[in-house]
Write a structure and sequence with these properties.
single chain, six-stranded antiparallel sheet, five-stranded antiparallel sheet, EC 5.1.3.13
Amino acid sequence: MVTFEETGLSGVLIVTPKRHGDARGFFSETWKRSAFREAGLAIDFVQDNHSLSAEAGTLRGLHFQSAPFAQTKLVRVPRGRVLDVAVDLRRSSPTYGRHVAVELSAANWRQLLVPVGFAHGFVTLEPDTEVVYKVDAEYAPAHDHGLAFDDPDLRIDWPFPADRLVLSDKDRRHPRLRDLPAYFD
């Protein structure tokens, strides 16, 4: 059993798989094609990614890939906690430039489904946090893009001041939304 909860952005869903627990621990089907298809989501994932962030306040993002390698992502946290963010980059969307921020954790067992047309990123809220996510298109460096995490037009309320965030040099140099080409119409 899996539940699908809508967010304020079309196509971005909170997915919560059932956990079956007993004295040994728990078991959970974190991805099941038939459950997604029953919900009208015909996604064929082709790659799994796994990151470990040692420090709380590690920010990864905001990332996306352009066509023909644009990606749908299913993001989960098997250890620790993150604030997971998706930003609508679809120019024709009524929610263009808006974002949703959802806490994902090992405790709440939620996942975030981020469809094509969105930038995605997260900041860790605890040390030694692991993030695992499925994608439906393989990584393609020539189609790899980003959006400035600190773009004031996005109004993302990150839970750490910018000077305390741990970021890659690449993630510090992404353009603002107003400077992005129209990757998704």
